[in-house]
């Protein structure tokens, strides 16, 4: 009986050793895996079609993509309006997962004529863009500049619902009329009014243009394509009422 007791004690000690070894092995594997997960992964080069930058809760903060995989408009995490696949570049999203700006670009030649452009824009909260740095070039008719403006009318969450309702209508005059009404002027003022432009116009003039609340130019500082400088004051009909030159 004593021999059996000794044998049993020996087996218990071996079992304890096995258990201790297994626990230590699992701990080592876990710590190694944790270190590998915590350390950033580094690449010398990576080819992708789209990268989504997300917060820990899954909300989008930035999308970097090619044209085919680009995102369409998004408000509060919900897609609306036109589908994706139209604008390669980077799209920014605010804390509520609503688009609030981006960097997009394009350029190609067809039938002997080229069309190119690039735009960095920032949106008014719950509206569309109000500050834009843009380059537009249609086969030599080139505008480069910074534009700032202001928006009024339905905020994006309200507009999304209205657009969804309009999209469900049958194609025809009533649908077209509803869409025009959605973007129509409010109390005689456009829903978007540019207020400041600084840049080069397509006529070759370098200009600083200040506009009123309806987007009408009222004061222009110009150096034209021949190097002549002047200051122009305009009325609300876009007519120059006074011009100052050296």
Give a description of the structure.
This protein has 246 residues and is of the alpha+beta class. The protein has 2 domains: 1-42; 50-191, no CATH class. The protein has 3 helices and 14 strands. It has helices spanning 2-38, 156-167, 173-182; strands at residues 50-54, 60-65, 74-75, 78-79, 89-93, 99-110, 113-123, 129-138, 141-151, 192-200, 206-211, 217-223, 229-234, 240-244. The protein has a 12-stranded antiparallel beta sheet with strand order 1-2-5-6-7-8-9-10-11-12-13-14, with no helix packed on it. The chain has a two-stranded antiparallel ribbon with strand order 3-4. The protein is elongated and about 120 Å long.
Unreliable runs, pLDDT <50, ≥5 residues? none
Q: Which class of secondary structure composition applies to the elements?
A: alpha+beta
In total, the number of domains comes to: 2
- Total DSSP helices: 3
In total, the number of strands is 14
Rg for CA atoms = 31 Å
Average of the residue pLDDT scores:
88
Overall 3D form: elongated
Strand order of the largest sheet: 1-2-5-6-7-8-9-10-11-12-13-14
Largest sheet: 12 strands, antiparallel
